[in-house]
Amino acid sequence: xxxxxxxxLLSGDGxxxxxxxxxxxxxxxxxxxxxxxxxxxxxxxGGIAIDNHGVPLPEDTxxxxxxxxxxxxxxxxxxxxxxxxxxxxxxxxxxxxxAGLNAFANLRPVMVFxxxxxxxxxxxxxxxxxxxxxxxxxxxxxxxxxxxGIEVRNNERVGFNxxxxxxxxxxxxxxxxxxxxxxxxxxxxxxxxxxxxxxxQLWRDVVIETSKNYxxxxxxxxxxxxxxxxxxxxxxxxxxxxAENLFGDILSDEAAMLTGSIGMLPSASLGxxxxxxxxxxxxxxxxxxAGKNLANPIAMTLSIAMMFKYSFNDEKVHDAIFNSVxxxxxxxxxxxxxxxxxxxxxxxxxxxxxxxxxxxCKNLFLPYLRFSSI
Length: 374
Ligand code: IPM
Ligand code: MG
Fold this sequence. Notes:
CATH class of the largest domain: Alpha Beta
Bound molecules: 3-isopropylmalic acid, magnesium ion
CATH architecture of the largest domain: 3-Layer(aba) Sandwich
Strand order of the largest sheet: 2-1-3-12-11-4-5-10-8-9
Largest sheet: 10 strands, mixed
Helix content: 25-40%
Structural class: alpha/beta
């Protein structure tokens, strides 16, 4: 009996279609190797949806997403859309998708692969063994708080947004962080700015209250500015970093640089189970390298691994994908963003998007890497 899954694929813009092609290839191999029947429905989203339908998130796209088992999103945006009114921009579509699927828990794992230690700008002695997870609240805070806008007061323009959190919003994301920490190294670092912001004080209070049900998990608190510093100073101290929307956005880009390239980072955005989760590389649409076979498909690949783990409860496929990526990296294969000449006497092999995708597919079921395979 095959396991049936329905995935909505949103390829989006820039390098999105290229890394999506690799995703489709990988999913076909998974179907064969692991007995799945995967239906992929492709929908316009982001800039391409603006071009074709005049809005970044057409209703039909959202409806299709809502009815699927998981949503796989590549990347959206581009300079062409930067001057549109805010609600018409690709980024507004992304916020609409997150809200429309109630995807409040954004998981961004940051693993440093030993084979890529030289690709980071941080000293490798500090990086080795880093394995942390940013749990970012995704549907609240200053991204969504009202009132917001730009208006004229006393003859000058005033711009304002609101960082608002309800107790229940904080509690549900804190629970996600504690539950996951329980299965990892049992430590949660909650990030806030409680020395200045009232909303952060409530955040801290509710996180502490929630922690009472998780006495096996250690809880510590850091102000966002200190957390940003600690992340570079000693990233190994962290296990789960829990943060509100904007703080998590900033910290996860910072954490990405520990891995050498933002092209390595996957993410999952989970809701309350009513709607499917979204799986998405942390990187953007990189219009400057689009269509040149230069993009790193690994973030997309690892996002698929997360999809199997979190939406399909299949750790076997998750591990197979993950190990395949590891094997390919250990054997010295690199896309341009993680290519580093001649360190430790090893000459890496430079690959394009497609060739990297091919190798990951091949190694999914090979017991070891055949160097002659490309
Ligand atoms: C991210 C991105 C988005 C965000 C943008 C594109 C709206 O930076 O997913 O981290 O700020 O959430
Ligand atoms: Mg971001």
